[in-house]
Write a structure and sequence with these properties.
heterodimer; A: about 250 residues; alpha+beta; 2 domains; seven-stranded antiparallel β-sheet; 10 helices; 8 strands; B: about 160 residues; mainly alpha; 8 helices; about 65% helix; about 0% strand; disordered C terminus
Amino acid sequence: MKNTEHTTLKQASQRFFAEQQLPEASLDRFEKMLPAADASEPVSPSRLETDSPTLQQAASNRLKPAALTASITAAVIVGSIWFVPSLSPTDQQLLSLSSPVKSTDQSQQQMIAAIADEVTKNHIKLKPLEVTSQDFDTVRDYFTQLDFSPQVSRYFPKISSTTLTMAGGRYCSIRSETAAQLRYLSSPQTSLTEPSSTKQWSTLYQTQYNANTFGALPRVEQGQAPIKTYSRGLKVSIWVERQLLMVSVEDAH
Amino acid sequence: MLDKTQLNGLYRYGLSLTNNSASAEDLLQSALERWLPKRQQSREPLPYIRRTMRNLHIDNCRRNAIIDFEPMSDNTPVLLDPQSLEQLIINQQLLQLVFDQLNSAEREVLYYWAVLEYTASEIAAELDEPRGTILSRLYRLKEKSKLLTEMHKPQSGHQGGGQ
């Protein structure tokens, strides 16, 4: 036990909270209370409360490695069976033609998976906007600390199944590269003041494209189809436009 | 649906509000019961459930005439230097004491700041409260932690412990 050690208040608090757990019997009771995931739910939305390393460690310590491996394997299998047939014909075609599965090596696949994981995590987190405006220029002017200027994507509106209204933006990062997170409301009728649980958000991330960092990615201006994949139940599209890496996240319809 | 990690996360949030394991479980159960019929409309279940837990807790406090979210006066000091809170050192064993000294609102802010690692602005946005109110709670959190640390500072000459 390290309980007698001095540490920062934040770390001490993280440890303290990590030690607080529901009794197994209560966990079972809650799990029984929750019905199995509906067929209409692609994947349970997860704003995991394990952001801090301490909690992540605590969580992993509670799971037996074998059970964890089995769960992950099952999730991957279920995910592959679930998502691929649900894709539209266009998506399936894009996957077969431009997916990294066939055209890139394993490290590139890992990079794409890591990007998708990172952006969907941010999308689900829905951290507060640092600039709020329906005007793109106003939002762009906010990002003075970037080495690039966020651009209106000509491709992004084409892949979205709904009309997009600019809502604002905030700084973020993709694979440690500083990025702009541009958030859109997917329906112009939706009020900005509605409870967030009913809002439909789409997010577009932009950062400077560097092939050494991100590997070879499709350039839409050269007629290449964006990479489309799924992470955490959300649809992720990745492409390069105007020498910017663009990553969009939206609900999988 | 929610997994065990998420359920435990919500339970911890309930603990931050109630500082009582049984009450935290009750709060979680009540919030889940309210969320379940609406889960298809709720794209962000965890913030939604947390908000429900918070509202239920405030209702309980009102019903029991407990003042756990007291109003702030304009003169309430606020945390001006966030780094000072980040750098505050404390004995791990004192955490429960600190926790007991805080009211619901302060424990809740501690949860968001330490566990979810939100900034004051983010906490304010999440809880729909002024940033100044959050900074004030963080200030009191810091002051109470410092005070307890001072009170439990080992006196010189007692470090060896051997007899």
